[in-house]
Write a structure and sequence with these properties.
With 267 residues, the chain is an all-alpha fold. The protein has 13 helices and no strands.
Length: 267
């Protein structure tokens, strides 16, 4: 089983040039034909952030979180969530969406979820740069702790890659998986402390919310930009996250490779 897993990852590495080409094509094809083209990839998240900012800071007059304006605190939570949500939703349908490629024997279908992840990563990197820019406009200049965003971004990539391998292979046989993932993301959006602080919840319930791996990523971004806390200051939760993520990564790769020979028969 371990050898099968290693060969699976080795094949992906050997096809890295093709993965890059497919990523660029996927990114362009999403917005091809519209007047604003690729700008829509960035306009939609910006509009969403502005709407939430207007509702919570202007409408509800949300108070600053600590010494930080609410909009800065909100951005450091909602931007990683955009990346998680977009990758998982698009990655789940990666195989079904490209069924014509599945039937080509020489094509490595395992690349398809990777392509969706990298396509979402392009937009995510842009918005991470926007975080640095907006903080600077508020005269808050990120220090060394902000470099942790690279670590937390990598942490999200590993988790999402395992999840999308798993969901994209299961949805071929169980169409309901796509709807289930969509519902989970809707519930997850409100159950994850993006608009609200975990400290608002009684301590005895906080542990259950921390079991959500998205919390580790979002809190990590805030630790990097807002709270200036290093990731090794949470040794227990970091260990839990990587044990969970490692399990999902291996499980996703193995399930995908086991089900791959049957994709063409179903599609």
């Amino acid at each position: 089983m371990f050898r099968h897993f290693i060969n699976f990852l080795r094949d992906l590495y050997r096809n890295r040039a093709l993965i890059v080409q497919l990523t660029v094509r996927d990114f362009k094809s999403r917005y091809l034909g519209s007047y604003l083209g690729l700008l829509w990839a960035f306009i939609n998240p910006v509009v969403t952030i502005l709407i939430f900012w207007f509702v919570f800071e202007v409408g509800f007059k949300s108070a600053p979180v600590g010494d930080f304006p609410f909009i800065l605190w909100l951005m450091t939570g909602i931007i990683p969530w955009f990346f998680i949500s977009e990758t998982l939703l698009s990655g789940t349908g990666a195989v079904v969406e490209n069924s014509y490629l599945v039937k080509k024997i020489v094509f490595r279908v395992s690349m398809l979820p990777v392509v969706k992840l990298l396509s979402a990563l392009i937009v995510h990197i842009f918005f991470v740069l926007v975080i640095f820019l907006i903080f600077s406009l508020y005269h808050i200049y990120p220090g060394l702790h902000s470099l942790q965003v690279i670590y937390y971004g990598f942490s999200a990539i590993v988790l999402l890659l395992g999840l999308t391998w798993l969901t994209s292979s299961l949805v071929v046989f169980l169409k309901d998986v796509g709807q289930i993932i969509s519902m989970v993301m809707q519930f997850g959006f409100w159950l994850t402390p993006i608009f609200w602080s975990l400290q608002m919840i009684p301590g005895k319930y906080q542990i259950y919310l921390k079991l959500n791996p998205a919390y580790y990523i979002i809190q990590g971004y805030r630790d990097s930009f807002v709270y200036n806390v290093w990731f090794w200051n949470h040794p227990v939760y970091t260990a839990y996250y990587w044990l969970f993520t490692g399990f999902i990564f291996v499980l996703g790769a193995l399930v995908f490779s086991r089900l791959r020979p049957h994709f063409a028969d179903v599609l």
